[in-house]
Amino acid sequence: MSRVFDPELYTKSYKIYKRAAEEINVDLFFCDLGMNFACFDLAWQLEKPVVGFASSPMLAAVPPPYKSDPIFGCHVTMENESFYDRFKCAVIKPFQFIWSLMSMGSNLNNQRVSLGVEPYWNLRSRTDNILFLFDTFLGFELPAPTLPLHQEIGPVLPDTYPNLTSDLDSFLNAHPRTMYFALGTNVFTSPQNIAVLLKSCLELINQNIIDGVIWATVKTNITELMSFSNTDLPISDILNNNYPHIHITKFAPQFAILSHENTKVFLSHGGASSSHESIYTATPIAADLIEMVMNTMKYDGVKDENGNLRTNNNVLLRDWITANKRMGFIRGNYIDVYGTFIILFLALICGFGYALFKIIKFLYKQYKDRNSNSKSKKD
Fold first, then answer.
1. Within this chain, do residues 221 and 90 fall inside the same structural domain, yes or no?
2. 59 is in which domain, residue-wise?
3. Torsion, CA 336, CA 339, CA 344, CA 347, rounded to 10
4. Which residue ranges traverse the bilayer (predicted)?
């Protein structure tokens, strides 16, 4: 977050954009949303039209109150949290976050002034009234009402991708039911979790559900995995590509792997680019929904006297219902939290007003008594 408000980065970007705009006499600015205040500011400063661009329609919908942001140190869903934690994450934490940003915003505004740009505090003031294009599949994001200014396009994919290496091509051709496993470049998890995933891969291979796995390790620290090596999980053989049905590579030509007919499933962290490429190549990334319903009935159902499974459809897929429906009307809409905040705010204002009134009344009485005393002395 501090990098977003870095005055030096802002100044460097602003000057580069301004020089480019002067050299080619820019007619339109096309600004990526990420860490890019300078682009939007320059467009406004030069009074040129600007179009925004982002990988997700993050500006298109206000998140429901029961969802929180981990940046506040809160859970993503607040469904099972106490009133105190929900109040803290909905009211106190955002105020603390805004307060912590004020000094960084002040420094950035000082830099704006030095460059002749009008300072502002509302971070969305440069993006509220412009056309925004969201690089995503239509229908990929959760349904939400959007503005006409917010349009889903794409996905925007490169014209060319790296081809398969000879090793990967040979592995895929020899394994008709391959699972591709990658966690992207920004996801980190513990060695214990990786060991569990690898053991699960071996179980899937032993059960003949899949016959091969390609794992792009990327930023995973594979040296930490060696301590988990045993007869059930031959980590050393796997990492050295001595296990015939698992191929390990630091980086992988992902699109080419997903495009191969023998790649049957993708175990992914769910990043935007990975999801778009998987959808584009029609590579499954999730369990089949119909099978999930059947399995849920299998484990949640109750057998009757004839041994047949019976299920209560009111609770069968309860976990799929949005949290606010399970929380009830008052908790689900945060009426208790916001109502308490309003009451506390009004009580504080009334208390302050009452105290101010008493102080003024006291001072006025002192002033009146003083005047009365001075008149008495004169008489």
1. no
2. 7-153
3. -140
4. 337-357
Q: Using N-to-C axis directions, what is the helix angle for 7-24 and 93-114, rounded to 10°?
A: 50
d(CA 54, CA 355): 50
Which run of H or of E encompasses 248?
Answer: strand 246-249
- Verify that 106 and 177 share a domain, yes or no: no
Q: pTM of the full predicted structure?
A: 0.65
For residue 2, is it within any domain?
no
Is residue 147 domain-shared with residue 195, that is, in the same domain?
A: no
pLDDT tens profile 266-309: 999 888 889 899 999 999 988 667 777 778 888 778 888 888 88
- Contact of 119 with 113, CB cutoff 8 Å: yes
Q: Give the count of domains, the chain.
A: 3
Closest CA to 48 of 20, 8, 88: 20
Q: Which residues have a Cβ under 8 Å from the Cβ of 130 and sit 6 or more positions away?
A: 49, 50, 51, 52, 149
List, for residues 90-119, the tens digit of each pLDDT value: 899 888 888 888 888 888 899 999 999 999
Residues 13 and 45 in one domain: yes
Residue 69 lies in a domain: yes
